[in-house]
Amino acid sequence: MPLYEYYCEPCNGIFETIRQMREASAPVPCPECDRDAPRIMSSFNAFTFRDGYPRRLPDKGTYWHMGKEVKKRA
């Protein structure tokens, strides 16, 4: 099953959960405040090859949702 990310506006945090694809768009209760959190678009890791060696593309470590910067839950 795929891993999806959800954004909780009251907590200003992002959390992940594993769900079936047919349930992906339905809101999920936040583990902190138990309010419904909508799914957000996730980023992914990407590699490139330069000089014959794989390299990870740079990651700024920031997350944005609806034009606002949010923090990722640990």
UniProtKB/TrEMBL annotation:
Q: Which NCBIfam families match?
A: CxxC_CxxC_SSSS
Q: By what name is this protein known?
A: Putative regulatory protein FmdB zinc ribbon domain-containing protein
Putative regulatory protein FmdB zinc ribbon domain span? 1-42
